[in-house]
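$ run holo --ligand "coenzyme A" --emit tokens
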Amino acid sequence: MAGDFIITLLDVDRHDRSAFDCGETELNRYLQMTARQHLQKGIANTYVLVRREEPSKILGYFTLSFLQVDLTELPAQYRNKLPKTSLPAAKLGRLAIDRKCQGNNYGRLLLVDAMRRVAGTIRNAAGVIGLFVDAKNPHVAAFYRKFGFIPLEENPLFLMLPQQTILAAFPERKAAHNSST
Ligand SMILES: CC(C)(COP(=O)(O)OP(=O)(O)OC[C@H]1O[C@@H](n2cnc3c(N)ncnc32)[C@H](O)[C@@H]1OP(=O)(O)O)[C@@H](O)C(=O)NCCC(=O)NCCS
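-- output --
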């Protein structure tokens, strides 16, 4: 399946945003009206899912950015050993699949891709304590829980995928042993 698809940064010259409809007006409008500005301003990246054979048609998208969370918001088991300050985190701002394609594991494909990007960020660029998402409703929260997201005590629609879960899902590849000197 993965070989038939491309997940890439939104490029408004190549990707047709107008036909996208996930059934949620706010998420459609974000893609159509705001995503490009946020990308240009460097405050949120939008990644789109397209088929290799039809690369202009957007099947789904997600956004990634950073946020700060307060230590007190975290589940108790993650509070220990962390500094008692605001902590850096990654944010899955939006995730949406076109209505005609829902239920085909495309949401899973995008979520796993977002996790892989965050694992790369932690290892190669900047530390974050996890990936956070604001679920729109309890049904969507159930979707995220399937992947290991943990609801926060104060607000069960705000969920965290801990750094440890993300890194365990994408173990670092061992460098090939080089015997020459
Ligand atoms: C929620 C959404 C992203 C899921 O994407 P999808 O492609 O339909 O989901 P997938 O086919 O990848 O499903 C993966 C798994 O999650 C489950 N799942 C999908 N939607 C779910 C939901 N709303 N509630 C609970 N579980 C859900 C599937 O049953 C599947 O589980 P399985 O492997 O055990 O069968 C998509 O339905 C969507 O875009 N909805 C409208 C926009 C929206 O609400 N976005 C979330 C914003 S917070």
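-- notes --
The first helix runs from residue 25 to 41.
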